[in-house]
Amino acid sequence: GTFTNSSSGTIQADEGATTITGQTSFVNNGVIDLVDGAANDTLTINSNYSGVGRLQVDVSGTTADVLVINGTAGGATSVDVNTVGLGVFDPDGILIVDVSGASSGAFVMGE
After folding, report:
1. Are 82 and 54 in contact (CB under 8 A)?
2. pLDDT 10s per residue in the chain (111 long)?
3. Contact 49, 72 (CB under 8 A)
4. Residues 48/22, Cβ–Cβ less than 8 Å
5. Interatomic CA distance for residues 61 and 10, integer angstroms
6. What is the pLDDT of residue 62?
7. What is the number of helices (H) and of strands (E) in the chain?
8. CA distances, 30 to each of 9, 12, 87 (Å)
9. Is residue 38 packed enough to be buried (19+ CB in 10 Å), middle (13-18) or exposed (0-12)?
10. DSSP code per residue over 25-48
11. How far apart are CA 110 and CA 41, in angstroms?
12. β partners of residue 107
C-alpha cells in the first residue's frame, strides 16, 4: 500500500540511519525532518516517492544529511537547508537526495 505523510505530519529521522520499507509508494505532503545540528543522518525510502511537502536537512561544509529513494521520485518537494558551523553551502556540490530512478524536478531549493 501507500505510506502517506499528511500535510500536518512530520517524519522525524535524525538519529543516524533510518529506513522506511514495506510500502509500494510513499507520499510526502508534510515534513521530513533530518535536522539535529549534525550533518550525519540518512533516511532511506524503499519505494517510489511523490510529494509537495518539505525536506529539512543539516549541511556542514561538504557533507549533508541524505534522503535515499530506492525508486522514482515525482512532485516538487522543497528542500530546506540548515547550515551547521561556518561552512558555505554550495547547492551544486553536496549530495542531499539520491534517487535510483527518474526524478527530474522532484526536489527544489526551499528556505
Report:
1. no
2. 999 999 999 999 999 999 999 999 999 999 999 999 999 999 999 999 999 999 999 998 888 999 999 999 999 999 999 999 866 666 678 899 999 999 999 999 997
3. yes
4. no
5. 26
6. 82
7. 0, 14
8. 5, 11, 28
9. middle
10. EEEESSEEE--SSSS--EEEE-SE
11. 19
12. 77
- Which cell is 18 given? 533510518
Give one word for 85, left, alpha or beta, with left for phi > 0 and alpha for psi -120 to 50: left
Residues contacting residue 41 through CB under 8 Å, at least 6 positions apart: 13, 14, 15, 16, 17, 18, 34, 57, 58, 65, 66
Q: Which amino acid is at 106?
A: A
Strand partners, 60: 63
Distances (CA, A) of 99 to 9, 73, 80: 23, 7, 18
What local confidence, expressed as pLDDT, does residue 85 receive?
82
Pairing status of strand 31-33 against strand 63-64: unpaired
d(CA 18, CA 44): 6
